[in-house]
Design goal:
single chain; alpha/beta; Rossmann fold; 6-stranded mixed sheet; 10 strands
Length: about 230
């Protein structure tokens, strides 16, 4: 579904990605792991056209997208839950959700307000509240719901549970587990290896702008030295 080949991305003269490469197949949950500042968010931004790569290839369902603007990339079926949530603060929960509503592939059972509220009941209770009045956990649920309302083929989450209380983190993992069971393809950045290992099919570890390891959850969990070398604080 998504294939990145040897992309290099710069911020001005500073290079952030050095031949980055990864794949996400249909129905897979794939993670990007690594310490802060190693290029995970830049990879997401390069996929979405926010920080376009200077070289290499980003293809989605066989179509090259690395030179397309972000708006056109999103319309192909990529839904982003950005780092920091970035919900619309002066719109209500309901308005945030319907603002992105789309069903470009004419799905028979698309995501709707009701199905988002079924996934996140606490949002239903706050549907008239402005975005800036929500808790951090509610904002993250809203950001996920907003992305799902686009009915994406691939859902991308950048720092899925960062800064959230343990109970709210569990709600997010439960949500992603349910989405996987529905066949949703997911690419997720997060630091909670134990939780990610329960739902992910494959993992990529990023170090200094390039992939240094790829493997299954069992392989990742069984290699403590690997975790310490690339993921430890």
């Amino acid at each position: 579904m998504l294939k990145i080949e040897n992309i290099e991305t710069f911020y001005g003269r500073s290079q952030a990605l050095f031949g980055m490469a990864l794949e996400v197949n249909a129905g897979e949950v794939v993670t990007l792991l690594g310490r802060n500042g190693m290029g995970k968010s830049t990879t997401i931004q390069s996929i979405m056209g926010i920080t376009p790569p200077s070289s290499g290839s980003v293809s989605f369902e066989g179509q090259e997208v690395s030179k397309k603007p972000s708006s056109k990339i999103a319309r192909l079926g990529l839904g982003l839950v950005p780092e920091g949530r970035q919900i619309f603060p002066n719109l209500s929960v309901k308005e945030n959700l319907i603002a992105t509503e789309a069903n470009r592939d004419k799905r028979a059972d698309p995501w709707t307000l009701d199905s988002i509220f079924d996934m996140f009941p606490s949002l239903k209770a706050r549907e008239a509240s402005m975005g800036n009045l929500l808790s951090g956990g509610e904002q993250q649920m809203l950001a996920i719901g907003r992305a799902l309302m686009t009915n994406p083929k691939l859902l991308i989450l950048d720092e899925a549970t960062e800064g959230l209380a343990p109970l709210v983190r569990q709600q997010i993992w439960d949500c992603l587990t349910s989405l996987k069971e529905l066949g949703q393809s997911i690419l997720v950045v997060d630091k909670n290896v134990a939780d990610l290992a329960k739902i992910a099919d494959r993992h990529y570890i990023v170090e200094k702008g390039r992939v240094v390891w790829e493997g299954s959850s069992d392989a990742l969990l069984s290699d403590q030295e690997l975790q310490h070398r690339y993921l430890g604080v």
